[in-house]
Amino acid sequence: MRMHDSKKMHVQQLLNSRIKVVNVGLEGFAKELKDCGVEVIHVDWTPPAGGDPAMAALLAKLGV
Amino acid sequence: MELIEQANREALTRVLEGDPKLLDVVPAGEAIAGLTERMILHAGPPIEWARMCGPLRGAIAGAVVFEGWAADLESAAQLAASGGIAFHPNHHFDAVGPMTGMTTASMPVFVVENTRFGNRTYCAINEGLGKVMRFGGNDESVLRRLRWLRDIFGPELSKALRLSGGVALKSLIARGLSMGDEMHQRNVACSSLLLRELSPALARTSRDRDVLAECLAFMAGNDQFFLNIGMAMAKSITDPARGIRGSTIVTAMSRNGTDFGVRVSGTGDRWFISPVEMPEGLYFPGFSEKDANPDMGDSAIVETVGLGAFAMAAAPAVAGFVGAGAPSAAANFTRAMREITVGQNPDWTIAAMDFAGVPVGIDVRLVVETGLAPAINTGIAHREPGIGQVGAGVARAPLACFQQAVRAIAEDLGVS
């Protein structure tokens, strides 16, 4: 229970302080935050092989 | 997988060892074995008349009239539609051509030899900007210019090149990169350097001062003059890397306005084909994306060797021209293309990136794994025949081509 309170406090502290965001994946989220004046660094990332598990497995066998 | 890594090292080594030289300008029918009457070579993978886009059909009609196989554009189109003309990709004949890529027997072509491996490649002479056949133009002004290139300019340039002993291209391109060219949508430096190199020989070999002045003015007035030479150069250095079993390195990317085709070293001359995409870019006044034809041309061969959009960092000015963002963003293209290539070319460096080499050796596995499609700087043609260029932009190679290639390599190696 104390852990829970501690986490809650951290979240409140986070939200009450100046937020800096690292956005991974969908760039739209970064743009929305930027429009709200939030400092954002965007990381251009997609799941390997576009999220196709069969292709990802084949690539792994081919040495990627 | 060691077999693939070894094969890719060999492919990359062959590309980097290439030593291309511009040797001559000769009629295509003399240089290209098998290019005969009533045959037209076009850009991109194979395609039949029924599936050809407007500019390609327009250029073909013009080429048929130019060769004298029909009296006018209408009967030329009828002849082409009725099966009276044989169509083949330039790439099947050691050749390349920008946009529609027209090559017919009497058109003069640049001859480039890769002196390291002894193979030769060919490309027609760049006609300049505006209404030109490579963008589907086919009116009398287009045909008149082609006749002048065939009868006057081609022979004059040939004499000069023979006297000069040819022009080494690797070092010329290195200088062009340091002067802001990326060799696809910006060729002003290389065109100027070539003019500087050939002017004395042209002056010595030309017998008519007016003709000499015309030839010099034509070269000086066309910032894209070097593009076609750069394309033949790129093909000359990728061709020796074809057919290395297991190699996942791309040896050609090309489009015909309908389909995009990719060739990979390990699968020889097989094309991996997918519908071509629309470039994103900027349009000339009076035109918009509604007028645009999907991407076309063999010119993506320059991206295949690490130039064009891959070398965007060397040419920040071109980023604005092709609508790719601020000049400061140009380096992002080069950085992104590093993610899908297996090496850098130490002979072609980019000052703005602390003299890092251009990224070279597109690996189909890396393209599929990252989802980063190769970027291509390109001109945009009007979708109707006979109009010409309407803009410039950046196109992306369709990922489907690379996925097909990965599956084909896996199948060949018995991996499933």
Key features of this structure:
heterodimer; A: 64 residues; alpha+beta; two-stranded parallel ribbon; elongated; B: 416 residues; 14 helices; 21% strand
What is the CA–CA distance across the termini of chain A?
45 Å
SSE order of chain A in H/E notation?
A: HEHEH
Structural class by SSE content of chain A = alpha+beta
In terms of structural class, how would the helical and strand content of chain B be classed?
Answer: alpha+beta
| Shape designation of chain B | globular
How many β-strands of chain A, per DSSP? 2
Which geometry of chain A do the CA atoms define?
elongated
**Element order, helices and strands of chain B?**
HEHEHHEEEEHEHHHHEEEEEHHHEEHEEH
Number of separate helices of chain B: 14
Oligomer: heterodimer
Extract low-pLDDT stretches of chain B. none
Strand order of the largest sheet of chain A: 1-2
Overall pLDDT metric of chain A: 89
Instruction: State the helicity of chain B in percent bands.
Output: 25-40%
Cα-atom Rg of chain B, whole angstroms? Answer: 20 Å
What does this structure look like?
By secondary structure, chain A is α+β, with helices and mostly antiparallel strands. In chain A, 52% of the residues lie in helices and 16% in strands. A two-stranded parallel sheet of chain A has the order 1-2. Helices cover 38% and strands 21% of the residues of chain B. Chain B has helices spanning 2-17, 28-31, 54-66, 73-81, 140-164, 169-178, 188-205, 209-220, 227-238, 301-304, 316-321, 330-338, 364-370, 399-412, and strands at 20-27, 39-42, 86-89, 95-96, 108-114, 119-124, 167-168, 250-256, 259-264, 272-275, 280-283, 296-297, 341-350, 356-362, 375-381, 389-396. The mean pLDDT of chain B is 96. In chain B, strands 4-6-5-1-7 form a five-stranded mixed sheet. Chain B contains 14 helices and 16 strands. The chains are: A alpha+beta (64), B alpha+beta (416). At the A-B interface, helix 3 of A face helix 1, helix 13 and helix 14 of B.
